[in-house]
């Protein structure tokens, strides 16, 4: 695979050492995690973090997730209360992001937190991400490696096609095995779900021994009027479709007549892993109108439906 602009690095020791060196110099490196590909920069370097926002075309008030190798490294930049310790012990490394009080002296760029006094942190469960964090030895700020508002990347080719000429390097670690962004939980008081994601909220509530509160911020829409267009394919999306209408391309789930199928077996884990790649494929097919089959709204299905609702939101 060739990249326009970005150096394509292999996920071996030499490639990771080069990627770490680029981060140290303030460059942008896209790397795989178990959820989606991230667009990484040194979280302590204002200019490098600003370059993330520029490359994505992202509004700078939207704060970023900081990636760390383990809970000890995370503890250096934020404060863990009992809930946070319990969740980190149960789900890290993994697809859970915790929003915790920032340690002001930790040296994290104010651009990372968009000036908030809390910070989002995560320990990824991916060999290549862990290898890069170990080689770099510091906190890596990384949003998903897609242009703002577009479909998140689950392969190196997705990153190359959307940001290839705006980043310094891309580590190709193959397809992401979870395929949906991390679940975000704020532990600043009552634990609160800010974004459904790769770890079902039922599992998180079970670990805490009580239900999660649900945020009403516009990033976690509760009513159609609050829906933010996001994760959007080029075509128009119609949800809960049981059959194609004229001119539609059908994205199926379970045994049915469809042009693409998230999981013919009706498996939510497989559907999550394939969702963004299917949306990318629909773009590549030039699908102008897309009908999407109903997805069961439990477990990972909730995060899938959250992404689909945003893909269908008016823009
Ligand atoms: O799986 C993932 O989480 C991927 C991979 C690369 O780790 N990253 C990712 O990052 O999805 P991003 O930037 O696309 O989404 C970050 C989300 C945003 O919705 C942002 O508003 C929220 O995290 N966030 C970050 N810091 C926050 C804070 N202090 N308080 C509340 N929300 C925060
Ligand atoms: Mg994103």
From TrEMBL:
EC number: 2.7.7.87
GO biological process terms held by the UniProt record: regulation of translational fidelity; tRNA processing
Domain of life of the native organism: Bacteria
Cross-referenced SUPFAM superfamilies: YrdC/RibB
Signal peptide: none
PROSITE patterns: YRDC
Catalytic function, reaction form: L-threonine + hydrogencarbonate + ATP = L-threonylcarbamoyladenylate + diphosphate + H2O
Binding site residues for ATP: 58, 62, 144, 152, 195, 231
InterPro entries in the record: DHBP_synth_RibB-like_a/b_dom (IPR017945), Sua5-like_dom (IPR006070), Sua5/YwlC_C (IPR038385), Sua5_C (IPR005145), T(6)A37_SUA5 (IPR010923), TC-AMP_synthase_SUA5 (IPR050156)
UniProt subcellular location: Cytoplasm
The entry's keywords: ATP-binding, Cytoplasm, Nucleotide-binding, Nucleotidyltransferase, Transferase, tRNA processing
GO molecular function terms noted in the UniProt entry: ATP binding; double-stranded RNA binding; L-threonylcarbamoyladenylate synthase; tRNA binding
Span of domain YrdC-like: 13-199
Major site of localization recorded for this protein: cytoplasm
Pfam families: Sua5_C, Sua5_yciO_yrdC
GO cellular component: cytoplasm
Residues reported in the UniProt entry to bind L-threonine: 35, 67, 122, 142, 182
Function in brief: Required for the formation of a threonylcarbamoyl group on adenosine at position 37 (t(6)A37) in tRNAs that read codons beginning with adenine.
Similarity field: Belongs to the SUA5 family.
Protein name stated in the entry: Threonylcarbamoyl-AMP synthase
Species of provenance: Yoonia vestfoldensis SKA53
């Amino acid at each position: 695979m060739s990249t326009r602009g970005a150096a394509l690095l292999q996920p071996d020791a030499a490639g990771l050492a080069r990627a770490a060196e680029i981060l140290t110099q303030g460059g942008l490196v896209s790397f795989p995690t178990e959820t989606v590909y991230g667009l990484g920069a040194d979280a302590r370097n204002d200019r490098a973090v600003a370059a993330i926002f520029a490359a994505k075309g992202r509004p700078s008030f939207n704060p970023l997730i900081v990636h760390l190798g383990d809970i000890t490294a995370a503890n250096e930049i934020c404060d863990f209360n009992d809930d946070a310790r319990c969740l980190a012990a149960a789900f890290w490394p993994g697809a859970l992001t915790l929003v915790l009080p920032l340690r002001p002296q930790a040296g994290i760029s104010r651009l990372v937190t968009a000036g908030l006094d809390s910070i989002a942190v995560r320990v990824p469960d991916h060999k290549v991400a862990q290898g890069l964090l170990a080689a770099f030895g510091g906190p890596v700020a990384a949003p998903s490696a897609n242009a703002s508002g577009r479909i998140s990347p689950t392969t190196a080719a997705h990153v190359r096609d959307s940001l290839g000429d705006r980043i310094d390097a891309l580590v190709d670690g193959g397809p992401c095995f979870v395929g949906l962004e991390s679940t975000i939980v704020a532990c600043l008081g009552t634990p609160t779900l800010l974004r459904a994601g790769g770890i079902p909220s039922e599992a998180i509530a079970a670990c805490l021994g009580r239900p999660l509160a649900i945020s009403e911020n516009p990033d976690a829409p509760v009513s159609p009027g609050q829906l933010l267009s996001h994760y959007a394919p080029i075509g128009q999306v119609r949800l809960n479709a049981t059959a194609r209408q004229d001119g539609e391309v059908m994205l199926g789930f379970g045994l049915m007549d469809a042009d693409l199928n998230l999981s013919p077996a009706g498996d939510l884990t497989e559907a999550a892993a394939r969702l963004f790649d299917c949306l990318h494929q629909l773009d590549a097919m030039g699908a102008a109108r897309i009908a999407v089959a109903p997805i069961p709204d439990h477990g990972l299905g909730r995060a899938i439906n959250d992404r689909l609702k945003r893909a269908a939101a008016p823009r």
